Amino acid sequence: MARRVLTVDDLRVKLCFICREEETHDKPEIPPRKWVHPCKCTLIAHESCLLEWIGTAESNQDRTPESVRKCPQCGSKYEVYSNYPLILQYMDMSDVLLSMFGRAVTFVGVGAIVFSFGAGIYAMSTAYGAMAIQNLVGDEMYHLLLTDDPTNWPFHAWINLPLIPISLICSQIPSFSNPVPLHSILTLWPSVPPVVRPPSTSSYLGSAFGIFGGLQKEIDIHSRTLGDLFFSWPPSPLMINVAAPFVRVFYRVCFRRFSHWVMGTTAPARVLNGRRQPIRRIAFGDLHMEFRLDGREEPARMQPAPPARLPVGPPEAMDEGIAPLERPANVPVVAPPEGAQAIGAGAGQDGGPLTIHLTLGKIGRIIGGALLLPFISNKMGAALFRLSKHSSLLRRFLAVHPHGGPIPVHRFPPSFADSKNPVRQLGSNLWVITTLIGCGSPAWTACDPVWWRNTVGLGIYLVAKDCVGLWYNWLSDREIQSRRLKDRAFDDVDPAELDLITP
Amino acid sequence: MGSISARRLAKEYKELNSDECPVGIKLLQADDFETWIIAIEVLGETLYKDEKFALKFRFDPQYPISSPAVQFVVDEKYQAPLHPHVYSNGHICASILGEGWSPVLSVPAVCVTLQSMLASCKKKERPEGNDRYVRFAPDNPKKTKFMYDDDTV
Q: ω before A234 within 30° of 0 (cis)?
């Protein structure tokens, strides 16, 4: 006997597992709704309910169609069939393709925006770097080393120049290791050979021999000695790069002592320990935001608003490049500035981790101050140059020599040692490279050392800036200490209300 | 389709108030078809012996096609259980409340599942990153995208 095929229509009571509506076989619903038993277990449902569930769940991004089109109880797959004509299949397929195309357009578009933004920043930084070099080394050297025409630039200029503004800004942020601001310029550029092309085609022949139109003489860089490297004046770039960090540290120690002496304070413990406490928090004062750098959780607490600055105007003498040092209101100035730092970094008042309090004004001051350095250095150098006209001592110190003389070109490598001895040849070549890096190219040595007086000028400016800042702190401190309240007579009080000694 | 949701919830309401209601589960408050409060306790020898919790169910008109928003009540009277899948604001990381939801489930079924989730707990602790989650969590736990990476608890 064939087994009876039981279907959903043979059930006495039908219960939809989705809407939980019941229907008994003797009381059919009007209008009738189709029932379906789509799986292997006992669950049944209205077809409309189940299709709604499948449609809704499939539109949910988190679910895969496989996880939707199956029974939640027994897991057997639902078989869904529909009228799916060929034309709709094509349309579905083209819809998928079009979305892929759309996604590609979005990616390319976002990429183009990011790229052009980055390229804009890059171009701006590079132009700034070239301007900074021109300001530091002076026009004469700039037209030898770089020129205004970027097609002349050596390839490394495209890496080095955009990094100049970044290194300048970093040099002003105390939490970095404080490189000397002009390191990046003085490390590389002295040894760069001149890039200028001969003025006319006829001297291309001359340039092949390293002679520009017959005007330039050659210096044999083999003739340089150790003295040129270590004892020449102005100091060779190598000497400056070696000595600058020491000078800087020495200056900062001296200045710190000096400012403690001026302010009548004692050095905080962390300075005596010789190690700086790591900065753990950065607080943005005017945005009421706080970032923790160590990533540790701590109970959320509102930072008190940063202390308002007293309405003491900065002294008239200050120009925009000089950052007056912040001081907390109503608290005698405790922590004197550390060297040329423009960020007030102090231990939290609760003795907690070190917090940097930043405001938008401070950030702008740091970045603007850093980017102005090359121009300030140029102006200071020019001022020194004018002064040197009146003092032969200063002239000798700045090693001013009138330009206009022939600019030598080093022949490199053609004039390498002629010796047949390979060891001597190697030694000779190494020496050439050393002096080239250490003393700079012959063109660098022969030019008027604008860079030297500009560097000296920048040093003077930084010291002056620190001194003005210290002076500002000192004046503010004195103002706080001199505060008194005005005493008034009891003019408006009835004398009877007062308990007087002699009534 | 609001009527489907109301009719189905009416049936579940009846079930919760009848003898079919699972042990340890009691409907505390169901004034409408939008928000229900249900008390649950875990019976037997478990880490949560003698503790009482309350669950808040929030339904939208698409229920049961869309899952209810379920969380533990945290107020003066009730606390969220200390459990590796329950955040201190009451939000629960359980797949059946998210992508694992299906209309075959119901309010009592969810309660029973959560009872067994508590009963099988071996260590009372908060989920990793609880503080950060609670600080930024949306009011509705359905808006959170949980990662279901642990099927053992």
A: yes
